From TrEMBL:
Originating organism: Mastacembelus armatus (zig-zag eel)
Entry's transmembrane regions: none
Presence of the UniProt keyword Zinc-finger in the record: yes
Domain Fibronectin type-III: 215-310
An example Gene Ontology biological process: microtubule bundle formation
CDD domains the UniProt entry points to: FN3 (cd00063)
Record's protein name: Tripartite motif containing 46a
SMART domains, A to Z: BBOX (SM00336)
Residue span, B30.2/SPRY domain: 295-516
Length: 530
């Protein structure tokens, strides 16, 4: 609107005065610019809200016109600014020369077709090259040339800039793009490919690489047989004596029953690992490989481990119940027991010509169960004379234990390799034992004079199913079934062990305890697929 009309009759402005820096309607412009006065010489322009100074003046020195241009600082200078020490040694040009130099941007606009042909040549060179470092240099050069053709970028700004006819104003606006424009002109006039697409000048020297490859020594893992499947899987391995040290190992495993993607834990620092959260009664396949500066070595041979058929029952031997200190001793942690023939056995042997005298020692667990399925394992010393391993009702075991030791137990059938405690007509006996001795297992179906025995496995597994009243004995390493019996689980049932003569047994420790005992740090593998 006109800034000089009196309200409420303000009219729309039709002219603007660059000298007055105001907008006028026709009548007001004539009124404030009378003919024959200096105001009549004012420059009229279109109405605007932003009036540009007609003459650029120095912001530091008022009334001083900007007549010089410093190429180093890229600033417009007045006569006083030019004399400052800060511009000493700089290249200072008159506005006219700077105006002509910056006007050379029109050269780029006039050679758009040349630039486009150079871009095409660059793209053709890229297509002729294989994927290598040269492509990056040429791609960067294409981007640089393509930027000169973009209307929204430098060219669009340059086209608007060339419309400016006032030299100081042009230099003021063009200085921010001066370096880019000078570089673009130089690249346009002196164009060449940033990289040669051919390899005729290249000579490959692979001597260092060959030497490094020959020095590489991959890790070879051996001896992964020291393994155990119990409450968790325990895998242990070692390296050859002449092997290079390994930075870390990778342990992989999968279920053999339902093969799928290998599950893996990377960067295992030790030479053993533990795997938990396993499926019961399943076969797992495990393998290991080492890594050093040469990379990963070959996988070890695959190890197959069979998990127990039921959750592992952890217990200790009860030392307070019926323990004869002169014949039976417990180890630290109460998971080891040894029976030594004492004086009482020697005294009983003095009467062997007239009657049969047996000295037996009974040990039970410190807990009892009456429901669910449970599994545990133990090792019987091969040199043991006679050892019975099994389960029984606590009350019935106490009753049997307090019988005179020189009387034959009615629950021990000399013609049977196992002691079930069953009487005639009783389907579920109160206890059930498997008999073993001198490195052998006495078969449950043996009949004199042809007794049948089987080798004693290194570890014996026992699985109690309280719901079905069934006890199953296994070779704990392969989980091969050795014998199966029945037991009455209407009352609490506990693991029990009986010694006759000298012998020893060791309860299987939990994998976690073994691993923590042999390592100061624990690496626990969870079944997360990596």
């Amino acid at each position: 609107m006109c800034g000089f009309c009196k309200p409420p009759q303000s009219l729309e402005a039709t002219k603007g005065c660059a000298d007055c820096k105001s907008n006028f309607c026709n009548e007001c412009f004539k009124l404030y610019h009378p003919w024959g006065t200096p105001r009549a010489q004012h420059e009229h322009i279109l109405p605007t809200n932003s009036f540009r100074p007609k003459v650029l003046t120095c912001p530091d020195h008022e009334q001083e016109r900007l007549q010089w241009y410093c190429r180093n600082c890229q600033r417009l200078l007045c006569s006083l600014c030019k004399l400052r020490r800060v511009h000493h040694g700089h290249k200072v040009l008159p506005i006219a020369e700077a105006y002509q130099a910056l006007k050379e941007v029109s050269f780029i606009l006039a050679n758009q077709e040349t630039i486009q042909s150079q871009v095409t040549k660059l793209e053709a060179a890229i297509k002729q090259m294989e994927v290598n470092r040269k492509e990056e240099a040429l791609s960067a050069q294409v981007s640089e040339k393509q930027g000169l053709l973009e209307h929204t970028g430098l060219m669009a700004y340059t086209q608007e800039l060339l419309k400016e006819t006032d030299a100081p104003c042009f230099v003021q606006a063009a200085r921010v793009t001066h370096n880019r424009l000078v570089k673009a002109i130089e690249n346009l006039q002196c164009f060449s490919l940033a990289a040669d697409p051919s390899f005729r000048h290249f000579h490959l020297d692979a001597s260092k690489e060959i030497k490094l490859i020959n020095s590489l020594e991959f890790i070879r893992v051996i001896d992964t047989q020291k393994t155990l499947a119990y409450d968790q899987l325990f895998l242990c391995w070692r390296l050859p004596q002449d092997s290079a040290p390994a930075w870390h190992f990778s342990v992989e495993y999968q279920s053999h029953n339902a093969p799928m993607t290998w599950q893996r834990l990377d960067e295992v620092k030790g030479t053993s690992a533990v795997i938990d959260r396993l499926q019961m009664d399943s076969v797992y396949v495990l393998r290991v490989r080492g890594c050093n500066k040469a990379g990963f070595g070959e996988y070890s041979e695959e190890v197959y481990l069979h998990t127990p058929p039921a959750p592992v029952l952890s217990f200790s031997l009860d030392s307070r119940w019926g323990l004869h200190a002169d014949r039976l001793a417990l180890g630290k942690g109460q998971t080891y027991a040894r029976s030594v023939p004492g004086l009482s056995l020697l005294q009983a042997a003095d009467r062997t010509l007239t009657s049969c005298h047996l000295t037996s020692d009974l040990l039970v667990a410190d807990l009892a169960v009456n429901q669910g399925r449970h599994y545990w394992a133990c090792s019987v010393e091969p040199g043991s004379y006679l050892v019975k391993v099994g389960v029984g009702q606590e009350a019935k075991l106490q009753e049997w234990f307090h019988l005179p030791q020189d009387m034959a137990s009615p629950r021990c059938d000399p013609d049977s390799g196992h002691d079930s405690g069953a009487e005639d007509g009783q389907d579920s006996p109160p206890f059930c034992f498997l008999t073993m001795g001198m490195g052998k297992i006495l078969s449950s179906h043996s009949n004199p004079p042809h007794p049948h025995t089987a080798p004693l496995p290194p570890r014996l597994g026992v699985c109690l199913d309280c719901d079905k009243g069934r006890v199953t004995f296994y070779d704990a390493h392969s989980l091969r079934m050795l014998w199966e019996g029945h037991v009455d689980c209407s009352a609490p049932v506990c693991p029990a062990f009986c010694f006759i003569g000298g012998g020893a047994l060791q309860l299987q420790d939990l994998v976690t305890a073994i691993y923590q005992h042999s390592h100061s740090a624990k690496f626990l593998i969870s079944p997360n697929v990596n």
